[in-house]
């Protein structure tokens, strides 16, 4: 039986999801919604129904799930409405606009019992899985680094953002670092600056040093206004570990100083197509997929902690970010059942383990 989905959001990324859904034989596009109804109509050219309200459209067309490709500010309200309507959700990153909203969505998924999975699409890369296998073979990790240097001229909202690199792009390598190291952030010190030739209003370059569980350090250095000799969109990676080192240029297979006999057991798929496949499999089997909301929140926490450190000039503890977000989530939550779920957590970190 095919999974019938409604895609909410008909911008560039929404259209990429529409193409991906229509290319997957196990998924059927039931409809497309966007506040700009003309954009929705143009995206599907009459192939499926369109509407401004995606959840209502899903109910009307008897869809099985929602794919939320709205702007970050709409992630929380749209996903909340869908989950309470009994619809599982596959959402674009970030999980929400703030960690407080992300914690609300964790509690909402618990209350409704519906699956909410975040498509952290760059995890679906066979070369990345090979790097992770190499990391395990190299023993205890000491230092993982990422260099990211690109010069895209997007125009639009990114050019006006306060923290364009950290808020819009860094979540990908931060999430990748968690995946490769199988570790969680403890604290971060981050500095931002804006080179004098930058076309961004906010700081477009940053260096962040994270302490991760187990004492390993993860260092990210990046710039979004660095023309010439650009890195891969995945960045350039180096791992220094107990028994050797591994490097990955972001595009080609990674290289390790120690041979790895056990590679990637299964093909993870490619980017959003891999995420869609994982979502479909989870709904059919009940397995917890990579990107399930409990396991995804820490990637956004790394972003929020780095922004706070860059803004204050101080080292920031992740537990402080979590506690502050937890208090804000409870204060802002209008639904009594979600508030009760939030209050029941004795530890935010433990709650995020699911």
From TrEMBL:
<feature type="domain" description="GFO/IDH/MocA-like oxidoreductase">
    <location>
        <begin position="136"/>
        <end position="245"/>
    </location>
</feature>
<dbReference type="Pfam" id="PF22725">
    <property type="entry name" value="GFO_IDH_MocA_C3"/>
</dbReference>
<dbReference type="InterPro" id="IPR036291">
    <property type="entry name" value="NAD(P)-bd_dom_sf"/>
</dbReference>
<protein>
    <submittedName>
        <fullName>Dehydrogenase</fullName>
    </submittedName>
</protein>
<dbReference type="InterPro" id="IPR051317">
    <property type="entry name" value="Gfo/Idh/MocA_oxidoreduct"/>
</dbReference>
<feature type="domain" description="Gfo/Idh/MocA-like oxidoreductase N-terminal">
    <location>
        <begin position="3"/>
        <end position="118"/>
    </location>
</feature>
<dbReference type="InterPro" id="IPR000683">
    <property type="entry name" value="Gfo/Idh/MocA-like_OxRdtase_N"/>
</dbReference>
<dbReference type="InterPro" id="IPR055170">
    <property type="entry name" value="GFO_IDH_MocA-like_dom"/>
</dbReference>
<dbReference type="GO" id="GO:0016491">
    <property type="term" value="F:oxidoreductase activity"/>
</dbReference>
<comment type="similarity">
    <text>Belongs to the Gfo/Idh/MocA family.</text>
</comment>
<keyword id="KW-0560">Oxidoreductase</keyword>
<dbReference type="GO" id="GO:0000166">
    <property type="term" value="F:nucleotide binding"/>
</dbReference>
<dbReference type="Pfam" id="PF01408">
    <property type="entry name" value="GFO_IDH_MocA"/>
</dbReference>
């Amino acid at each position: 039986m095919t999974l019938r989905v409604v895609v909410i959001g008909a911008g560039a990324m929404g259209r990429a999801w529409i193409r991906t859904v229509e290319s997957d034989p196990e998924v059927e596009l039931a409809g497309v919604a966007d506040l700009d109804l003309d954009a929705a109509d143009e995206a599907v050219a009459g192939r499926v129904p369109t509407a401004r309200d995606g959840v209502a459209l899903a109910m009307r067309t008897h869809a099985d799930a929602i794919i939320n490709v709205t702007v970050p500010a709409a992630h929380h309200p749209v996903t909340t409405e869908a989950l309470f309507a009994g619809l599982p959700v596959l959402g674009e990153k970030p999980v929400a606009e703030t960690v407080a909203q992300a914690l609300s969505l964790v509690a909402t998924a618990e209350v409704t019992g519906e699956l909410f999975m975040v498509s952290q699409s760059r995890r679906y890369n066979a070369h990345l899985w090979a790097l992770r296998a190499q990391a395990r073979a190299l023993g205890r990790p000491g230092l993982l680094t990422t260099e990211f240097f690109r010069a895209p001229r997007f125009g639009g909202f990114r050019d006006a953002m306060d923290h364009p690199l950290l808020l819009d792009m860094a979540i990908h390598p931060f999430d990748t670092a968690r995946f490769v190291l199988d570790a969680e952030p403890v604290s971060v010190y981050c500095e931002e600056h804006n080179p004098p030739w930058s076309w961004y209003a906010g700081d477009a370059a940053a260096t962040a040093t994270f302490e991760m569980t187990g004492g390993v350090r993860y260092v990210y250095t990046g710039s979004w206004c660095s023309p010439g000799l650009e890195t891969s969109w995945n960045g350039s990676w180096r791992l220094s570990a107990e028994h050797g080192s591994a490097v990955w240029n972001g595009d080609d297979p990674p290289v390790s100083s120690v041979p790895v006999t056990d590679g990637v057991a299964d093909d993870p798929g490619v980017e959003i197509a891999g995420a869609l496949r994982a979502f479909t499999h989870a709904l059919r089997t009940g397995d917890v997929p990579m990107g399930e909301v409990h396991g995804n929140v820490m990637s956004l926490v790394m972003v929020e902690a780095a922004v706070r450190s860059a803004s204050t000039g101080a080292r920031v503890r992740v537990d402080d970010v979590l506690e502050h977000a937890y208090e804000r989530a409870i204060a802002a939550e209008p639904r009594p059942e979600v508030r009760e779920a939030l209050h029941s957590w004795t530890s935010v970190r433990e709650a995020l383990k699911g």
